Amino acid sequence: MVTPRRTRVEAVGEGAAVTTLELFFDLVFVFALTRVTDWMADDPTAEVVLRGVLILVVMWWSWVGYSWLGNVAKADEGVLRVGMLVAMAGVFVASISIPEAFDDLPGGLSGPVVFAVAYFVVRIVHLGMFWICSRDDPQLRGQIVRWIPSVLLGTVLLLLASQAEGWLQTALWAGALLGDYVGTALAGASWRLNSASHFAERHGLIIIVALGESIVSIGIGVAALPVSWPIIAGSVLGLAVAGAMWWAYFDVTSILTERALAEATGERQIRLARGGYTFLHLPMIIGVILMSLGLKKTLTYVGGGEGHTLADPLYGIPLAALYGGAALYLFAHVWFKRYLIGTVNVERIVVGVVLLAITPLVALLPAVVSLLVLALVLCGLVGYETHRFRELRHAVRHGSHAEQ
Fold first, then answer.
1. In terms of Cα–Cα distance, which of 248, 246, 261, 252 is closest to 339?
2. pLDDT band for position 7 (50/70/90)?
3. Which of 370, 318, 374 is closest to 41 using CA atoms?
4. Burial letters for 328-366: b for 16+ Cβ neighbours within 10 Å, e otherwise?
5. Euclidean distance between CA atoms 245 and 247, whole angstroms
């Protein structure tokens, strides 16, 4: 039987590059992350931040499924191109409704229902595209069949949550996400990974997207304020923090972990991809977005917005998000490297613990000084690692590590 041209898919080969459609797809997530950060910053209470994290997990689960799909078949060819564009529409509608994902605003459609339905569309399209890709692969088709219950459980609970309120609603969200993650972990490891380099690149790019949101948050925090020397100083410090976090991931870590993923084979490679990238990149993203929340509030303080002065300290949830987000990012890095290459980065554990320990102390300092301390600690970490491991770093970055 001849496969209709409109439903043909083109397999991804080893060494494939990320397509422009996948980059286009990621732009929707830039908007989604910005919406989450802005929503949390408007009312940074513990409940709002918790709900913001739950929204992040939902958006991550929407994105990560398509990173696997795009590694099996080319995203910009055949029916997958249409599927990706439809999924983008679903993600974009969900992003628009983020401020109403839990509490509906007066007038218009029900925000929680719109968010849940948009998420359902994204998941169904993803499942349908994978079903098409697996028509000549019985093992992958069986994996998808085992995975369907977790998809249904997650989406049904999210739809139920749209009809609930308060902590019951939050609990249903948590249950939906837990069911998705546990179900995926228990469904087996018979997925397909056609290109380790493509898969690693996709996840590296989403880290860039998240770090880009931290820079956007710096700008948005002072967008309506007159430029001043404190704003310039705070912006440079915020950029230094984001730069240090970029360095921590892309200088050596991303290279070593990609090599480890490429060298693995069979089911072990799938488990490394699922555990190291699908699961452990999520806390990195959450850490960056929490830090973005802290950066946005810090720049507001520094610029004299919302009635604050330069001497006012950053405290409470915004400060915990700023320092705790950076610490979570570092801890996730340690776990990621341990999972992929078996090494433990003690330096990053120590710095993460130090950041958590000094958080109550910097709450006594002006907001700009708190940001300065964070920048010095993170830049000091990357400087120390760069100097201490300079020979290994040179070998890794210039190719001789593989020969050793």
1. 261
2. low
3. 318
4. bbbbbbbbbbebbbeeebebbbebbeebbeebeebbebb
5. 5
Q: What is the three-class DSSP state of 11?
A: strand
Section 351-358 average pLDDT: 97
Largest Cα–Cα separation, the chain? 74
As given in the structure block, the two tokens for residue 288 are 């960056």
Helices (H) and strands (E) in the chain, counts: 16, 0
Read off the tokens for 239. Answer: 């950029």
Q: Give the Cα separation of 128 and 134 in Å (integer).
A: 10
Assign 177 to helix, strand or coil.
helix
What are the start-end ranges of the H helices in 73-195?
78-96, 111-133, 138-161, 166-186
CA angle centred on 62, ends 121 and 14, rounded to 5°: 115
Q: Work out the number of other CB atoms within 10 angstroms of the CB of residue 47.
A: 12
Contact 249, 204 (CB under 8 A): yes
Q: Which of 336, 270, 281 lies closest to 57 in space, CA to CA?
A: 281
Structure confidence by residue, pLDDT tens digits, 83-123: 999 999 999 999 999 999 998 888 889 999 999 999 999 99
pLDDT at residue 329 in the model: 98
Whether residue 254 contacts residue 204, with contact meaning beta carbons closer than 8 Å, is answered with yes
Q: What is the pTM of this model?
A: 0.92
Calculated CA dihedral for residues 337, 338, 340, 341, nearest 10 degrees: 90
Conformational region of residue 309, where left means phi above 0, alpha means psi within -120 to 50, and beta covers everything else: beta
Sign for the pseudo-dihedral over CA of 145, 193, 54, 92 = negative
